[in-house]
Structure formats: C-alpha cells, structure tokens
C-alpha cells in the first residue's frame, strides 16, 4: 500500500506557508482552511507539529493575541525567510507536478 505520509508532510508545509502568507492566522483556522480546500482527513495533531517545525526554521513567527472566544490564540505570520521558502516550494512543486503528470499520463 502507498505510504502518503511523507508526501503529505512536505506538501502540507508549503500549503500552510501559503495560507499564512495571505493573512495573520492561528492553528485551528489553518486546519479549517486546509479542510475546506480538500484535506478533509486532517486533524489538529497533524498541524501543530508542522507549525512548530516552521517556527524552529524561522519561516513563521507566532504572537499571542486576545480572542473574543476565550483564551489567547497564537497568530502566525511569515518571516522574510518564510516568503523565500514559499517561493522555492511553489517553484519546485509546480516543476515536480508537471513531471509526475507527464509520467502518469
């Protein structure tokens, strides 16, 4: 059986960077965006380790902000390095997508 976890890991990192590039956002909202776009099987436990990894790489920066619905939320924004990484991801993913599509036809 095909193990999609490794393929998903890198793809999700790029997708999360793209979502954060659009506006300051928090983990649960990122998850909801991903589900809305078709990643319906994702759970919160998948997103937060990726966010931590992206913070450690200094691609995103988190900031606690007040929430009208309870405790503070950690909102994420892209750093300069994050925008650079997103650009590299988009370029490589598009090239790889073309190659794979040619092979699978």
Strand order of the largest sheet: 1-3-2
Please report the number of helical segments: 4
Structural category is: alpha+beta
Which of globular, elongated, flat, extended, rod-shaped describes the shape? Answer: globular
Major sheet summary line: 3 strands, antiparallel
Give the mean pLDDT. Answer: 93
Radius of gyration, in Å, reads: 15 Å
Instruction: List the secondary-structure elements in sequence, H or E.
Output: HEHHEEH
> First CA to last CA: what distance?
21 Å
Uncertain segments:
none
Name the helicity range.
55-70%
DSSP strand count: 3
Beta-strand proportion:
15-25%
Textual characterization of the structure:
It is a single chain. This protein is α+β, with helices and mostly antiparallel strands and 105 residues long. It is 64% helix and 18% strand. β2 and β3 form a beta hairpin. α1 crosses α3, α1 crosses α4 and α2 crosses α3. The longest helix is centred in the last third of the chain and has 25 residues.
């Amino acid at each position: 059986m095909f193990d999609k976890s490794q393929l998903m890991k890198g793809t999700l990192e790029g997708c999360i960077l793209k979502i954060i590039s659009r506006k300051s956002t928090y983990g649960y909202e990122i998850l909801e965006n991903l589900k809305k776009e078709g990643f319906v099987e994702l759970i919160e436990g998948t997103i937060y380790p990726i966010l931590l990894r992206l913070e450690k790489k200094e691609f995103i920066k988190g900031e606690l902000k007040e929430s009208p619905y309870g405790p503070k939320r950690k909102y994420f924004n892209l750093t300069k390095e994050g925008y650079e990484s997103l650009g590299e991801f988009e370029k490589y993913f598009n090239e790889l997508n073309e190659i794979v599509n040619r092979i699978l036809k």
